[in-house]
Sequence to fold (329 residues):
Amino acid sequence: MPYFDSFQRPISYLRVSVTDRCNLRCVYCMPEGGVAQIPHQDILRYEELERIVRVAVGMGINHVRLTGGEPLVRSGIVELVTALAAIPGLDDLSMTTNGTLLARYADALAQAGLRRVNISLDTLDPKRFRQTTRLGTLAEVLAGRKAALRAGLRPVKINTVVIRGLNDDEVVELARQTFQPDWHLRFIEVMPLGSGVHWAGDGVVPSAEIRARIAAAWGELTPVHGKTGVGPARYYRLPHAEGTLGFISAISEHFCHACNRLRLTSDGQILPCLMSNQSVDLKTPLRAGVDDATLQEIFEQAIRAKPRGHHLTEGILPLNVRPMSGIGG
Ligand code: SAM
Ligand code: SF4
Fold:
């Protein structure tokens, strides 16, 4: 049974950031020169992560998603997946990745016990891809997607951050991909975190607007209920399409009432809410040698600290929140 927070939300999902490093510099996430990196000694070691996840699973967490920075730049990531996949009660182990290194790792990750991946991809135009990520190559990500499908890391969901003037002219073309097999897309409203602070505001394209543009081109979107996962996305399907279209709208259609998650940063802080600067330190007691019961109490404290919701709709921005690359999305 999962723990419930003060607003009767069951907490069953932990997002684990395994590194704050990344091989890309997406314009809405990181500045061109990168961000100050967490010193190596402060990053949780794999055996520490395994122990933490074991405790969390013992409290009813049944889904863990590995994220970053870019999780695939951390060496030994396959061994971490092997260790986590062996934890009884962990039903779903997934990863969010920029996909650039997936062609190299997909088979090994699948064999190690990873279930599925979400790949971030904001454009299908190679030149624009380079401009948006500053360092990436579109062909690598598309090859990574294919490798993930071949390895059985399904469903592969594509996460697309939509920004007005940057890639919003592509939403219709991106949605068209769902007429082909194995294309599941999720459109994400840009959030005021990291470099996203510069884009949120005029850059936000409300999900309702994206849906209207897609419907005008391809026909009515039919809601898909309960089929493609719990969480913040609302899912739809185009007429005769195989794949689904999800919409994650932290601002225009916010989903705090259904929030089921905690986040763990790579330096061992539990974040009760993405949009809050609150954090609960797990690393210091862990390294001081506390027992599992104490770690569990720290998790309980973080669950109790979950706020009812964020206040972005009232125009209140959270202060001193870590950049998205340090939280993991
Ligand atoms: N590097 C991996 C990747 O890009 O998939 C994992 C970490 S990344 C921080 C996780 C997700 O956060 C990505 O899908 C990315 O597009 C999204 N993201 C980053 N900055 C954002 C922002 N300001 N607003 C909305 N989504 C953002
Ligand atoms: Fe790196 Fe992911 Fe941020 Fe892009 S969105 S800079 S790939 S962490």
User: Anything to note?
Assistant: Residues 3-326 form a domain with the TIM Barrel fold (CATH 3.20.20.70). The mean pLDDT is 92. The longest strand covers residues 92-97.
